[in-house]
Write a structure and sequence with these properties.
alpha/beta; TIM Barrel; 8-stranded parallel barrel; 9 helices; 10 strands
């Protein structure tokens, strides 16, 4: 597999599921290939029948040995926009619990989805999101600066003002933005303000695919913008198979020759 570790002013990351094994095995597999590993927690630990058991001490040791950093994908099964106050509070509890569990790893960013509640009117959903972010802000205090709200399957303009108002960070997912028709100028304008960037290919109407020739123009523009804004954070190649990561790393290595340190 292509090794891209330490090549750029920004950190290149992979997900903790590129081989069919647990988090620790994936970290070992990736440790000398990339700069950062995104620890995936798609299911809330309290709701999962078989919660992931993470050896934090082992991960910390691997990070020190291989000059790794970590980012975290917070559970996507929580419901921040629910009209049920108890459900919103449970979402906050899940976030706080997981952040406390992983604090020893000093993650650079925790990515959070604010999923739509399709049964709710937009105004009601936004009001619930506003209340959720207000409570999460008070629960986290200054730590909210490392919780980044990710653009997903609806126009991010709906929630961007609330993200700014409550002092949370931004996770700019380029793949999502392109798939769901975000204005590219707005999408790339967010990069300079982003704490974390996700990038992945699109193929056959599906995202999280290997980067390839279809993304060549986008990758060149992305590299230019990263360089122009002086980005020094993490760009995660958000794919979930070793072959897709290999292809994506090769694509990046060929696209960003001018930006190597």
């Amino acid at each position: 597999m292509v090794k891209i570790k330490g090549r750029y002013p920004w950190r290149i990351g992979a997900t903790s599921f590129v081989i069919p094994a647990g988090i620790e095995e994936n970290v070992r597999y990736l440790a000398d290939r990339v700069d950062d590993i995104q620890l995936l927690f798609f299911e809330s630990p309290s709701q999962c029948r078989l919660p992931q058991q993470v050896d934090v001490h082992l991960l910390q040791g691997l990070a020190q040995e291989h000059d790794l950093s970590y980012t975290v994908h917070l559970p996507s099964d929580i419901q921040p926009g629910s009209s049920d106050e108890g459900v919103r509070q449970q979402a906050i509890a899940e976030i706080i619990r997981l952040m406390a569990q992983l604090a020893q790893l000093s993650p650079l960013c925790y990515d959070l989805h604010l999923a739509l509640q399709p049964e709710l009117a937009m105004g009601q959903w936004l009001g619930n999101i506003d209340e959720f972010l207000r409570r999460l802000r008070h629960a986290l205090g200054r730590e909210r600066a490392v919780v980044a709200i990710e653009n997903i399957d609806y126009p991010f303009s709906l929630v961007r003002p609330l993200v700014r108002e409550h002092g949370f960070a931004l996770c700019a997912d380029i793949g999502h933005g392109l798939l769901y028709g975000e204005d590219q100028n707005v999408l790339f304008a967010d990069i300079g303000k982003a704490a974390h960037i996700h990038y992945h290919g699109l193929r056959g109407g599906r995202d999280h695919q290997a980067l390839g020739a279809e993304q060549q123009a986008c990758s060149k523009r992305l590299g230019h913008v990263l360089h122009a804004v002086g980005f020094t954070g993490v760009l995660t190649l958000e794919v979930y198979r070793s072959a897709d990561l290999q292809a994506s790393l090769q694509h990046i290595a060929e696209s960003w020759l001018h930006y190597q340190q």
